[in-house]
Amino acid sequence: MSNCIVLESLSKSFGSKDVLNEIRLQIPEGEFFGLLGPSGAGKTTLIKILTGQIGYQGTAKVFNEHCKDIGREIYSKVGMVLDNCGIYERLSCYDNLLLFCKLYSVPKSEIKVILDKVGLNKVGKMPAGRMSKGQKQRLLLARAVLHKPKLLFLDEPTSGLDPMTVEEIHNYLLELKRHGTTIFLTTHNMTEAYQMCDKIALLNEGYIVEYGEPEEICRKYNTENMITILCKDGKELVVPNRPDSAATISSCFEANKVETIHSSEPNLETVFKQLTGRGLL
């Protein structure tokens, strides 16, 4: 499988401030990748580099093309959902997409298809300025995937949305992945990243401090290695995750005492705090 994105010794400074430092990444085609970190960590800067908006030091390639040289052919393969992507609020939902159909030479018949996919088929005639935040976010996503991009950049795509809207957007993103779209997600929502991403990188003050599969990272930093049993009478039993605890755990099940049982793997938020001494917000 070829790589969609390749970064080698990538750095970026604004004046005396180092924003990205010696970033190295390879993201295969069809992967759902997450870049996690707090505000100001450098996430949006990296997206701007990868989409050819700003210069950089080192190597950054998208579809084997240097990001400094990105042209129409590469842009035709890319979709973006960014905070600063404007919507034409006086135009209807449908007409916002019609404009981009003309820009990308997409048949306008695709508008109805994509509106159905993102759950906006009932508000196609509504002026975008009257849409809710969740509806606008779906419109941004519809616009970004209208031309069937091979690479989709998402910058905090579900921030501030209600749980039902988030679930619907997640389901659609996973459908895109199944059809081969590479997805590059930036977020400080660790739960979202854990559920959605094949690989993640934790970014702090311009450095990648950890990289890998979410589950593997959490297991790697499981320093406690304990098992917690919540009994039906409300009592909690905590035992080491070792073979000599097997008899104790077995006796709880045999006595039908177990309400829940959990191992002690930390979540990504805890791992990030352990690595950096700070939270994500």
From TrEMBL:
The keyword Signal does not apply. It comes from the Bacteria. Residues 5-230 form the ABC transporter domain. This is ABC-2 type transport system ATP-binding protein. The keyword ATP-binding applies. It holds the Pfam family ABC_tran. Keywords: ATP-binding, Nucleotide-binding, Transport. GO terms for molecular function: ATP binding; ATP hydrolysis activity. It comes from [Clostridium] polysaccharolyticum.
